Amino acid sequence: MWIDLHIHTTFSDGTLTPDEVITAAKKSGLQAIAFADHDSVGALYNYTDPQELEIIPCTELSAREKNKSIHILGYFIDYKNAELERFIKSQRKARVSRGKRMVKKLNTLGIDISMDEVKKEVKGEVVGRPHIARVLLEKGVIKDLREAFSLYIGNDKPCYVPKPNIKVKEVARIIKTAGGIPVLAHPILLEDDEFALKLIDDGIEGLEVWCPAHGKDDIERYLKIAKEKNLIVTGGSDSHGDLAPYPKIGDFKVDYEILTKIKLKLWNH
Fold it and tell me: Using one digit for the tens of pLDDT, what is the confidence trace for 182-235?
């Protein structure tokens, strides 16, 4: 039995609606999935009963410390929790502000793009860099979506604007307040395992061990860390639907046993 605990929908920066994700998941033989949209739980309100497919309530929230963007998955959250809803709304407002600043920077380079055009690309609730990239592609500024990041809006590129400096401790607290388990997503992308380990003291209770960014050695290393620190382990594709370079749904799967162990951890909280 196979699962995928990290999938984005149109409610953040994915290309598939929640129902389209469910259809793709069933076709690929998955038994459980998690909608893990950035700063949104909208997908959890907007899908048709999947019957034999288990939906895990989740969201992916962002923190920023030491000039690093840190993604934290919140599993088994009460997505109707009032404090979580307030936090997500504030993050969405910050994303709009950030998007405007990136558009302005693109304008200073002589690129004709407006925030209204970016918002038209948003199918759900959250403005993200992929929406800016799609406008640039439609206008012929770039050859493919990857080029938007490599030339303009990727980390440390000319038009990049960082997210707000929110502490990991605060994000972890919000997730726990909503009854969830905070898990550090794709830790290898932090490029600093020592820093990642320190986040455990700030409330992180799990590591996303299996993901496309991790090689065999990374997986073994993070499994060892998780065992030593008594952390749960998770895994998922980080699929954004048809958006490259992310895997398509079904191309990256993890064993259902992982989900069983997460549930046991939650019940013993």
Answer: 999 999 999 999 999 999 999 999 999 999 999 999 999 999 999 999 999 999
Who contacts 248 (Cβ-Cβ below 8 Å, separation ≥6)? Answer: 24, 239, 241, 242
Q: Which two tokens stand for residue 14?
A: 């994915």
> C-alpha angle with apex 70: 66 to 73, nearest 5 degrees?
155
Residues 82-111 have pLDDT tens digits of 999 999 999 999 999 999 999 999 999 999
- Per the CB < 8 A criterion, the answer to whether 190 and 70 are in contact is yes
Pairing of strands 54-56, 58-65: unpaired
CATH number at residue 226: 3.20.20.140
Q: Evaluate whether residue 142 is within a structural domain.
A: no
In a domain, 185, yes or no: yes
Q: Residue 163: which of 105, 94, 104 has the closest Cα? A: 94
